[in-house]
Amino acid sequence: MRSLIPNRIRSAWEWRIGRPWLLARSFTVCGSRRGALGRWGYLGYVGHRNYGDDALFNAITGQMMPGPDFEVADLPPFPRTLAARANALNDAVDLSRYTAMVVGGGTLIYRENYLDLAERSLKRGIPLLVAGTGVGDTEYWKAHLPDGVLDGVVRRWNDVLREAVLVGVRGPRSVAALHAMGIESATAIGDPALAVTMNVKLAPQRSDVIGINLGTHDPIWGEQGRVDREMVTFARGVIERGKRVRFLAMSPIDVEIGKRLGAAIDSPAYEIAWDPRKIESEIAGCDVVIGQRLHSVILAFAYGVPSLSLSYQPKCLDFLESVGFPECSVKTDDVTAARLNAWLAEIDAGWTDTSRRIVEKVRGFQAVQKEFGERALRLVGARIHPR
């Protein structure tokens, strides 16, 4: 399968011989209308060896909003672990170079990581756009953060969003959360990673490959070790029935999990796909995908591949409800090999119809995202070149 990322985009991934997860940190996209719209900053977790986040950057800058020169405005670490360094990086970013700032994909709203830069952009009069960002579930995160921390972050984000030029978010849960806070301008435009196939003819085909993914950087419902053990049992069973199992690594953490699963499964029918240059084609070549990382599931949907989310926090349900497949979810504290097999049998019986419905949903969101991007370009262009 040919590469689906336009040549004009410098990928956030650089392959070096023997070091597949060493990444280049050169994230500038030269727009087709270079100079007319200036340079736009991008807020998102790009360049940290997480394929889902880098796919979001490519989708937003290459498919949704082609035209401006894009640049990742910041590469902060998680502030809870390296707060001083993150603040120093934020302070060092020269915002005067940007004519617009885009809050990119990922679940960034009500998280602290990029809030300071969003606030500073607005103070400088830089128009702020929210492009398919997820809204963190406050009840979920209150259980994982010190008392009182989240309340201040939520208030600050709400102030930012009230001043944003456009607020497009991932799904219905994100919209409901913002509407409850009085952010009535919020609309659901779907997860931006769906746009990776915007200009691609989709013709999903059946295969004997079952794609699986495990891994996360965040806390989960339940216990990861139990999820891993149930997945080993499931994988052994499908291999015994003549299928192949492809572990889809979306980050270095996943690679290590994939190796541990491989050692436990111990079969030549098990393989690990970890070349970031090929991961999308590896996903597209699966019959189904059962994934823990949200964007392993979203990218499967983008290619019309039926997928089951091992939902480890509410953001997974936000996406599945947005595309009308809430039944394609099992919470990580409810995962069993038997439940995975039951879902696989149900999908197998109606695979063609399920894939067709997925493609219809994806195409619908891609049309919404294209219109959103065109509107964003018009609004910012009118500010740069007022009549």
Largest sheet: 8 strands, mixed
Ends distance: 46 Å
Whole-number average pLDDT? 88
Query: What's the alpha carbon Rg, rounded to whole Å?
Result: 20 Å
Strand content: 5-15%
The ordered string of helix (H) and strand (E) elements is: EEHEHEEHEHHEHEEHEHEHEHEHEHH
Shape category: globular
Describe the structure.
This protein has 387 residues and is of the alpha/beta class. The chain is built from 13 helices and 14 strands. The chain has helices at residues 51-64, 83-92, 115-123, 138-142, 149-163, 172-180, 224-240, 252-265, 279-284, 294-302, 314-322, 337-349, 351-384; strands at residues 28-29, 39-43, 69-72, 100-103, 107-109, 128-135, 166-169, 187-188, 209-213, 244-248, 270-273, 288-291, 307-311, 329-331. The strands form 2 sheets. Strands 1, 2, 3, 4, 5, 6, 7 and 8 form an 8-stranded mixed β-sheet that branches. Strands 11-10-9-12-13-14 form a 6-stranded parallel β-sheet, with helices on both faces. Strand 9, helix 7 and strand 10 form a beta-alpha-beta unit. The longest helix has 34 residues, at 351-384. It is globular. It starts with 27 loop residues before the first strand and ends with a helix. The model is unreliable at 1-26 and 75-85 (pLDDT under 50).
